[in-house]
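PROTEIN FOLDING TASK:
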Amino acid sequence: MSFFSKNTCYRVDLLIAIRTKRQIHVRSMLSKAVVLLLFFLLLAFLAKAQTCQGVLSANLISTGDFGSGPELVVPANPFLAPAYTYQNSTPPAEGAYTLAKRSYDAMPGLCWANATDSSADPNGYFMLVHANTAASIIYERTIEVCDDMEYELGLDLINLASATCPDAPVPDIDLLVNGQVVHSIGALNADESWHAFHTILAVGSGTDLLVFSIRNNALGAVGIDNIRLQHCAPAIDLPSITQVCNEEAVLTIDPTNITYPNPYYQWQHSFDGGSSWEDIPGAGENFHTIDNPINGLQYRILVANGPVNYQNPGCRASSSPTTIELVTPVTIYQTPTICSGDTLQIGGQSLSSPGSYTLPLGGSSGCDTLLEVLLFNNPTYDQLYNQQLCAGDSFLGQVFTSDTLLQFNYLTTAGCDSIIH
């Protein structure tokens, strides 16, 4: 029976403002009133955002899941816990840590939980640390970050004591950044289950490195997995398919959706279905014009908070890719005939003179349907005839005594109105 269950994981949401040491240092000369004012301003800031707005970027801690492999234990020391000795067997002794697939090998140690990696990967590793002293750093890493951004810091933890040993030491965990506690997780219950935690960090201007540490304030053994630091990136959507029916296409995103104070744009294209991407020289706007599009070519846009941050892949926001689909416009031919002087309404145009016309019609695909019109005119007639009569003579059954203008309307054989005077 396995005691590991993802259904027992929980999320804890906090927002912590991270600044450099000189930013969080309060000079002793400041009055109590100023300190209190700063405190309440910080509380007001924290209340604004309790969750990551947008989407999560790539994990800046690329080895946060500790990888996977065929061996039960990672043989080489990864140097993750400065005060502990690396042990290439399980379970680790007091004062030791290891990276392994499960908490013990053959026979279980006294009061050890039967724990495995916190993922669906049967070959995945997690970190096991057996504390021998209180208030010790059980994991530490320096991370390159980008300033003026919010990050989500998260990890999975498990108390490695068996639930059948109620007197086993209970780990008490704090998360620290630059030596300051940013989240106090507290005691980990011995329920033989992984628990997920995360908090929001606001990294200030001028900060490019963070030292992230996990501290156990008590004795006991703890399992660590899936450590991640991901910046809160804006969501950028492109259509999955961009249909093109001429020699030019324009891709664009709405710049008002970009939350970075100094957005830096870079369009990329892929010739292998998205497996690899190349920067497009000169494509540094929120729109990109494609001359002579190629069917099947993919495009995306990357956005970062300035050109320096763009150099760090973990500090970029990426749009969804769009694939070019070339569409051949449909041509429709029509040869209408109208009477001379009449007007034909077709394709949003008014035509009256005979001749050849090419009219674009909007199609459902976004490409124009071409309407080729060859317009003919049938003639109409307006003719004047003079008939000499003497006073009292009759004409067409009428007697005339003075000059008179008569008008007769007829239809031609083509159905056009004609007038005889």
Q: What stands out?
A: The first strand starts at residue 15 and ends at 18. Residues 137 and 215 are 4 Å apart (CA to CA).
